[in-house]
Amino acid sequence: MNVAAHGVDAVRRSLAAAGPTALQNILMRIPDKVCAVALAALPEEERVQALSRMAPVKAQRVREEMRLEARRRTTALVRGRIVRAFLSYFGNAKPTHGPVWIRPKKRP
Alpha helices, DSSP H only, in the chain? Predict the structure, then answer.
């Protein structure tokens, strides 16, 4: 899944389709790193709106994960898996099994 092409639209549709209470409940259940990767693809205004639906402490953790993610060398394949995991919480993708990200191997 190309996050830039499909992911942004799918994330937007998922966020818009959920009612306010359902959206808050779903976002609070999603792991911070998964939220960070999916929401980072959105424009700033939409990202702020989504973060405002979370508890302040969770929103702060997600912002921190976004900052850390910007420094990581996450491949497009892994980002696609993470976005698919995000969409699965909304019922818009098949659930992923196991970890959604792959730890990079240490170089000798």
Answer: 8-17, 20-29, 32-40, 44-51, 56-71, 76-89
